[in-house]
Amino acid sequence: MVTPSSSLLTLEQALATMLDAVAPVTVADTENVPLTEACGRISAESIVSPVNVPPFDNAAMDGYAVRLADLTPGALLPVAGRALAGVPFTGQWPAGSALRIMTGAPTPAGAEAVIMQEYAQVDEQGVRFSVAPAAGEHIRRVGDDIRQGDEVLPAGRLLQVAELPLLASLGIASVRVCRRLRVALFSTGDELRPIGAPLAAGEIHDTNRFAIRLMLTQLGCEVIDLGIIADDAAALREAFRQADSRADLLITSGGVSVGEADYTKTMLEELGQIHFWKLAMKPGKPFAFGRLGQAWFCGLPGNPVSAAITFYQLVQPLIARLGGRRDWRTPPRLRARALTPLGKTPGRLDFQRGRYRLDDAGELTVETTGPQGSHVFSSFACANCFIVLEQARGDVAAGEWVTIEPFNALLQG
C-alpha cells in the first residue's frame, strides 16, 4: 500500500528510516577476484596477513651495523663487509668490527644498532663514530608493521588505492569480495528524449538517468538501464516487473510528487509497499522509498539538481548498506565564512552549491556558484561543496558563518 505523508520529514528522519529498513543483500553471494580487478569492490571477509612486515630485521638508514660492546669512545673499527637491499651480508663478522649497511638491507645476526653515515668518519683503516647509539636504533624489527596472522582489513571494507597496494605488499594476489549490487534504472516522462536526439517543442534531454548512471558506476554497482519509459500503464508495469525480477534496487526519476497525474504511483500501489515523502530539504522535496516484491525502490524528483542531491544524501548511503559496506561514514561538515550573500527562505534544510577554499589567513571561506534553482545543473560544474543552511535560517549576509559539506569522491571527479 502506498502511504502518502502531508507533513515534512527531515533528512535525518528519512535516512534513518531507510537504513533501519534494509540489510546487506550481497554478503552471502561472493567471488574471488584478482587484486588487479578488485578496485571499488567490497571485502567479503576479514583479510589476514600471511607474512610478517617487515619479514626480517633491516636497516632504517644508510650507515653502519654495530655491536654495542664494540663501541668504546674514539674506537676505530675496521669495516668487515657490507649489506645491501636484496644482497645480505653472508660472511663472518669478526668481533670489534662494523658492517657497511644500506637502507632496507637485512641486519646481520648480532647487530644491535645502525649508526647513520652522517655520524661516521671513514678512512682507509676503518670507521669512527661521533655518537653512541641506543640499542635497536635505526633497526626495523621483523613484524614491526604487521604480524603474521594480524587482520589487515575487515570485512565490509571498500577496496581502493589505499588498501590494494597494502594487500599486494603482503603477497596477496586475490581477494574475496561481495558481488556487485544490481541496480535497475529508468526515467519516466513523454517529454524525455535520449541525449543527442533532436528535440521537438516541449521536449528535453534525459540528463537525470545519465547522471544517476554515472554515480552508480562510480559506486561500483552493476547497472541495469531500462531507458526511458513512456507515461503508459502497460509499459510502466512491465518496467517495474523487469526491475523487480532482475535487481536489488530500482531507482526512477520523476513521477514521485504527491498529487501528480501519472501512472507511477498506481503501479507502485499494485506492486509494493512504498512511502511517498515530502522532505524538509531543498532541492529535493518529493521522494519515494519502499519495497517492490523483491527489490528496494527509490523514486527521485524529476528536476536534475533535486535528483542529484537526493541521490547523494539518501541513495548513496543506502547503496553502501545494501552492498555490504561497513566503513561508510557520513561526509563531514565544516564551518566556513560566506564571501557572498546567500538567499534562503526559512522552512527547509537547503543544500546550495558552493566553492570553498582556505584564504591567506588560513580561514575556510565559501562562495556561491551562482543561481541555485533545482533545474540549474551548471551550479554543480564549478562547485566543490554543499553550503548546508539550517531549516530555520533565512538569508545569509556576506561575512556570516555557514556550514559546508565538502563533496566526497562521488562528486569530486
From TrEMBL:
Q: Offer a single GO CC term for the protein.
A: cytosol
EC number in record: 2.10.1.1
The record, for InterPro entries, names: MoaB/Mog-like_dom_sf, MoaB/Mog_dom, MoCF_biosynth_CS, MoeA-like, MoeA_C_domain_IV, MoeA_C_domain_IV_sf, MoeA_linker/N, MoeA_linker/N_sf
Q: What class of enzyme is it?
A: transferase
Q: Catalysed reaction(s)?
A: adenylyl-molybdopterin + molybdate = Mo-molybdopterin + AMP + H(+)
Quick one: a GO biological-process term for this protein?
Answer: Mo-molybdopterin cofactor biosynthetic process
Q: Name one Pfam family in it.
A: MoeA_N
Which cofactors go with this protein?
Mg(2+)
> Keywords of this protein's UniProt record, alphabetized?
Magnesium, Metal-binding, Molybdenum, Molybdenum cofactor biosynthesis, Transferase
Recorded hits in PROSITE patterns, A to Z, give: MOCF_BIOSYNTHESIS_2
Pathway membership: Cofactor biosynthesis; molybdopterin biosynthesis
PANTHER family in the cross-refs: GEPHYRIN, MOLYBDOPTERIN BIOSYNTHESIS PROTEIN
The role this protein plays is: Catalyzes the insertion of molybdate into adenylated molybdopterin with the concomitant release of AMP.
- Would you identify the family this protein belongs to, as annotated? Belongs to the MoeA family.
User: Which protein is depicted?
Assistant: Molybdopterin molybdenumtransferase
Q: Taxonomy-wise, where does this protein's organism fall, top ranks first?
A: Bacteria, Pseudomonadati, Pseudomonadota, Gammaproteobacteria, Enterobacterales
